[in-house]
# Entry
Amino acid sequence: MAGYRRFIAYVYEYCKGKKGRNCGFIKVEVKEQRCTVEVHLNCPGILPDIPCDIYGFIRKDGLLNGIHLGSCKTKTNAANCLIASNSLNM
# Structure
């Protein structure tokens, strides 16, 4: 399908620099000038209704700049949200 792009990034826990268990995934889709970012993370021990800010990162001139994409509230042991934007803004 022309104009449709998607990628999925799996998120892993790291302890003392060693890759551990899978904690979830982030899916980004662009279709017809609409960009959606889905975040699905398993966070054992996290309490419900905690504000959770979602950032995207861009590497430019050797620096890593964070861009606030949106916010959500956690659920018991999880953080799940869907952020939508015009793809021209991403």
Observations:
- Residues 13 and 19 are 6 Å apart (CA to CA).
- The two ends are 20 Å apart (CA to CA).
